Amino acid sequence: MSGIQGIVYLILAACLLPYVFANLAKAFGGFKLTDNQNPRGFLANTTGLAARANAVQQNSFESLPLFIASVLLAEYMVIPQFMIMMLGIAYIVLRILYGICYLANWSSLRSVVWALSMVCPIWLLISVIRLSS
C-alpha cells in the first residue's frame, strides 16, 4: 500500500477506533435498545470495565485531531511515505494497546503506551518543521 491510499487507510482506521471502544463500553455496560434514548447518559453512569472502555473511547477522540493533522501535513510536505506509514501504523497499534491496558486496568503501563502513541504524530510534525526550515 503506497501513496494516498495508505494515508486514507491510516486515517480511516484511526477514526473508526473510538467507535470500537464505544461499542465495547455499551456491550460491557449492558446497553439495551431503550438506552438509545440517551446513550451518553447511559455511558456516563457506567462503572468498571464499561466505564474504562468509555474512557478509552473519549481519549481516542481527543487524540484524533493531532494524528490526522500530522499525517496530512506530513503527506503535504512530502515526508517520506515509509516514515508516514511506519509512524501511522505504530500510532494505531499503540492506541489499540492503550485500550487493552485501560480495559485491563493497568494504569502505569497504560500511561507509558499513551505517551508512546503521542510520540508518533509529534514526530511527524517535527519532521514537517525540519523540512520546512
From TrEMBL:
Coarse class of the protein's main subcellular location: membrane
Keywords for this protein: Membrane, Transmembrane, Transmembrane helix
Transmembrane segments: 86-106, 112-131
GO CC annotations on file: membrane
Database matches in Pfam families: MAPEG
Subcellular location per the Swiss-Prot or TrEMBL entry: Membrane
Keyword Transferase tagged: no
Protein name: MAPEG family protein
